[in-house]
């Protein structure tokens, strides 16, 4: 209580002192202002206005400078990002030519566009059948195209490749039916190939023979996201009564909601079924017999979609394919940049190691002030089409220096321990230790810059420096052995 009361008295005294000082300043400022005003009144009229205008100009200029410093300085300035170009065939063709000139492989991109042109010229409606193994995709196509000779395996898993079949409806429309591998029968990257084919289609039919499992539900959600008519065809209709069919359809629709709710039809794709035959003498035998076929609900629905929305279906197909090409183009460019960035970092790290071996007394500021570090950052920024000035590079390197100073002793110690793992070399000090340390530094610095450029599109100083510090200390033991081995090879080859 005594301490609290004493503190209150001190605060009260301090407040009183501040009040007196403020009043003294106010009185002094008022007195000087009034004296100045009286003197100005005695000046000639032209000098009075000239002096007043000068004061106003100084005040306005100071205010403008303050505003620019606070709100318009380099730290607050933002470079407006260019809006992405619309995904059109003309823009894609231009981008493909650009990355092709840069040395990237664009064959698959051109094939995709050529395939789109061919389908547009043929005027076919592309319908993709998707679904798990043994749900009846091939049986449905067999029912639509009995002359196609699609082999159906009763045990499931007959579809291993993407197969295309043409079908002409009663109304005269040319359709292309694509039989896609089921989710659990695809191997390697075949799932991705099936997804791409579904993107190229105008209508997607998802075939199942029961309620949707969790994985099937996710498949339908992904396919529906392409913005195309989505139809769920429930096969083996004879296993459900009319009431059960209604309940099953309601249950499936309730999982998607009204906005993304797909259309549902029940069909019987035919095929064969096994039955137990009991003879009069009591003998039992498992035999196969044809299953009744009825896909009228499916064909009627498809014909209705084509009759009512053929132009819209074609537009959706074109948009989806162009977006698919853009996605593949971006992937191609990203993969190319990663591989080239790795080459740049590896080459710069190699040069830094050679520089450390050649130097009599290498300094730890090489990464900050050296030509190698600056050149490496310039090449990485050029690779990612990120304009950068020497000032920006210096700012980043200076910012990273604070992180580096904390890590140099640790890097030197780790480098020395790493060299000890190699008989006959471990006791060599000086240049070898520095060379390993420089290898660790340049490797982390280059990968930090490349990572920041890939994630942000430009070299952001603070995030890049933070990533540099993280990579500098990550997996030190294994990386040290790698660079120690490289340093020893270079040392012995001198």
Automatic annotation (TrEMBL):
UniProt-listed Pfam families: MMR_HSR1 (PF01926)
Domain called G: residue spans: 126-236
Domain of life where this protein originates: Bacteria
Gene3D superfamilies (alphabetical): P-loop containing nucleotide triphosphate hydrolases
InterPro entries with a match to the protein in the record: GTP-bd (IPR006073), P-loop_NTPase (IPR027417)
Residue stretches spanning the membrane: 7-28, 48-71
Alphabetized UniProt keyword annotations: Membrane, Transmembrane, Transmembrane helix
Protein name from the UniProt record: GTPase
Organism this protein belongs to: Thiothrix lacustris
